[in-house]
Amino acid sequence: MHRRTHPQSLQVLFVAALLPNVVSCYNVAFDDEASDIFACTQDSECREDFVCWNGACVDDRGPQLTVLGPEPLSAFDSGTAEVEIAFRGADLTLSNNFESATEGEGYLEVYVDGVAVRSKDAGTAITEGDLQNGFSIGAVAIPDPTVVNHRIEVRTYRGDGTRYDNPSGTGRQVFFVRDASLFMSTSRPMMAITRPWPGSKIKRGRPVTVELAAVDFTWNNPTGEASPSDIKVGHAHVFFGRDDYPECLPGCNGLYVDTLRPANGLTSDERILRTDDLEHSDSQSSGSFIVSAGLQRNNHAPWPGMDPLGGDFLVADAIADNVVVELVD
User: Fold this and answer.
1) What pLDDT, on the 0 to 100 scale, is given for residue 55?
2) Which has the minimum average pLDDT: 31-45, 117-131, 244-258?
3) Residues 6 or more apart from 271 whose CB is under 8 A from it?
4) β-pair type (74-76, 170-177)
5) How much is the pTM?
């Protein structure tokens, strides 16, 4: 279920929407005066060629990329050091012509956890392949396999290096690698923030869409009680602007901006919770901004704690994630 985004949550309006005759430009600009007619909670509320992105209908004309492998929210065994990356796409002709910016042509770069594993600068950009039917680039090393949460990006670029910035022009996927040194390592719940994506630009003072995904965990509305039999059941707390999370636990556990639970945010993929209208302080300055989240037991204690007051809680056992985005004026 999704709650309708408030009118003031409208963030972006594409130039092409205002200038119907300009059909070959995919560039985007903010419009603070735009009408809330463009506000949305799902793609079906937007006109053709537009998608619902951060609470607004935005122009999605341009390349369309989908990461096929690893499959969404895959969980790999401890010790996994590489993953096979596969994808498919449309509306892009792969080319090694790095001199021009011809629309509909270009190359791909692949990033794992923000680290380029295929790039133009390294001479390994993807310039050929059957993009329409999809193909694999083979096994790619995970930059830091000791990290539990991992993110893949496949980015599209024009020949001159300018990026296609329509939402579907970047293929994104999250996967996990278990950590044998952690509590309940073989079946330990794992969680990641899937929106906002690291590096996203968010309009300062406007509501934020937050989406959380968890595996080996069942999202549940808080009951106030937590028994040994439901240790992999619960909800999540979301925090804004903290640079000390989860180290601040358990003391900061009640300082969340919202609770994400099925009653107000379960998506069609029951592993994912989403809310579209979390607000941060208008006094927050532009620049880097941290979005954090952590799993909670049914009794509102940070996972895996039984005691709501934290008791013998160990920060190392917390299931948490942080992403850094950019607030823009």
Assistant:
1) 64
2) 31-45
3) 73, 213, 214, 215, 219
4) parallel
5) 0.83
